[in-house]
Amino acid sequence: MEDESSSSSWFSRIFGSRSKNGALLEQELSGRAYEDYRRLLLKARPEVSQDRIVVKLPEGEVELRKDRLIVRAKDRKTAEKILRNLHHYDQPPSLWPAYGLSYSIKQRTRPRIRA
Predict the structure, then answer these.
(1) Which residues of 82-101 are buried (b: 16+ CB within 10 A; e: fewer)?
(2) What is the pLDDT of residues 70-104, one digit of tens each?
(3) Cα(46)–Cα(48) distance, rounded to whole angstroms?
(4) Which domain of life, per UniProt (predicted)?
(5) Does 41 map to a domain?
(6) Which single residue of 39, 84, 101, 111 has CA 20 to 30 Å from 63?
(7) 55-66: average pLDDT
């Protein structure tokens, strides 16, 4: 069993550890990689706050900071799938759902009307 070529073992060697509330993949980025991811993620209408760009997806969340990319999901398999599919943001938005991508889902708080 020395020949493990599964994506799971490959990702586990490169990216960060597992969190208690699901999977967390982290990757350190160079300046050029940051700019590439920034350009890509801005197409998804993310939440932008100072030095963070957050794209909320139905299956997880992608956060981009100056020095790292963080993918959070319910399990490692889903997080790896999100990471693999991020490059599809270069395609037309009509194709995004086929890869589990979408425009960022922003939670808007609506005032409750009481009768």
Answers:
(1) bbeebeebeeeeeebeebbb
(2) 999 999 999 988 888 888 888 877 877 887 787 77
(3) 6
(4) Archaea
(5) yes
(6) 111
(7) 91
